[in-house]
Amino acid sequence: MCGIVGYVGDEYAVPIVLEGVEKQEYRGYDSWGIGANTEGGIIIVKHKKPDDQEFDWFVERVMRVDFCSSRNAIGHNRWATNGEPSDINAHPQTDCTRKIALVHNGTIENYRELKDFLLARGHIIKSETDSELIAHLIEDMQKQNGGNIRSAIIKAVNQLQGAFSLLIMHADHPTLQVAVKKGSPLVYAEVKPSCFMVASSPLPIIKYARNGKDIEDGQIVFIENGKAEELSFADEKIKINPIIFEGTEEELKHEGFPHFMLKEIYEQPCKLGETIAGRVFTHEPFIRLGGVEPVLPQLLACDQFFFIGSGTSYRAAMLGAWMFKNYLNVRAQAVQASEVGSHNILAGCQPDKTVAFVISQSGETRDLQLAIEEIQAKGVMCLGIVNVVGSKIARMTKAGTYLRVGPEIGVASTKAFTAMVLSEAMLTLLLGRHKNMTRDECITFANQILAVPGCLELIFQQADEIQTLAKSMVDQSALMLLGRGYHYATILEGALKMTEVAYIAAVPELAGEMKHGPIALIKPKFPVIVVAAKDGLRGAVIQNIMEIQARGAFVIGICTNGDEEMQKLVDKSIIIPDLPSHLATIPAAVVFQLLAYYLGVERGYNVDKPRNLAKAVTVG
Ligand code: G6P
Question: Which EC number(s) does UniProt give (predicted)?
């Protein structure tokens, strides 16, 4: 998974592409690269990111080079899959003649066969990447068909298996850029007459154009001499669907905040307000989800539900499944997207009575795409809970609901998680209203959802305290998180945040299971964060707190506002608003987000770009 971007037109291309690379850093940041087509050939600058350097370092390297005012450039952000991060493995990759240069997002599955074929034909392969092979394959096809670059590219891409989006240039064609798409996302736009941009996401383009085109699998765009020609892999003329790019330039900056992660944490009251705006009411019809209503009759006929996601989205999936079980009294199960193929999860299901909610911030996660294909092949309907409008997963699903939280740039997911949970609560209300909830229950449920955005302010009032707590824990290499019921998902998400941005081995454990093993970690002063909310499980949690306090643990309680007894029991308390447990997960998760953020910052890490991670994982 990587980011690709290109510009060809009448402006200096390198600064535009460089800015695009920076905007797509969320897609990968272990290496950066730029290639520019000039009269003297293709000039490439590409580097592995040094451990102690950020993007400015690369900009400075690019500025040292004379690109001869090139009007045609491509750029790349890399998240290594084939071959370690290194200068040589960074993109653009080139063929033997260095006339063909390309950037690639995806993975080529028939990599070994292609490599053997190309080596046998005398190609010199310099990098460990699968991407370089594509450049050699095009070179080979070009030699075979008398130099025609267009048919060489079409022949080559038809031999590739796997997921790939490509942006290709050729030294002998100064105004040529070829965009190819299968499996990995790619959009393009005519940013002004005869000038084009292509990118993995609209983010680099929205500054210049709002109207673009969403390239689909099996489509190619040949841009040359200021014109774009749209073709299929079978070399037939096609028309690619136009789209309007959403989002604003403002959303791509973190002005007023030191990091995107902090900005996105603080945006939650406003963004969650947008998630529910015009959708939840305290009077009939209580809930309106326009994206789901077309399939409502089908949905109401279902009695078995799956919630599927990866990473943070899987934690949200757990909460969705539990809300459905508890409020709708139906069979519901959360499954990690990567595990859908490992177990026969649909065993015994009646396809027309089963639905899978597929949950994703990016709408790109490859594991989830594969899960959807497998589920749909068995005749089961998939509905999306997705943030990125028009993304691949949104389009793969029959219907669904958007999170409406805007671009999430910080690699660790924050506002998308809380919006997923709120969306699942809305879906619970939607089905409950038609199935089993009384009018009074609907009013209560709707009021509780509506209260969520505003009550997060209570957490932000404690931000200094949370920062001080983080400072006191800065040298900890491990800590434990305990919770019960819904809050098991909260602590799994909390532990993930601490692992991702603070590199702390945070052990999440069901409070009731702690005595069966993890209690061995407890020693005097060992920090344990317990979600000790005022709900039906409170008594059991008090028992668990006493067990670890008896062994000297330092207990930080996430306690409900007004529960003074609990606040006195724990060694340090952070207060969350008094909400029912399925929704109290939201403010409790925000506490963990802030704690992880401050821990990461205090430990000196770049929380927006954690080690080895990327925002959208488009490899399976
Ligand atoms: C990556 C990200 C996680 C994210 C997961 C699922 O691993 O680093 O933060 O939760 O993908 O992403 P999605 O976009 O499908 O929600």
Answer: 2.6.1.16
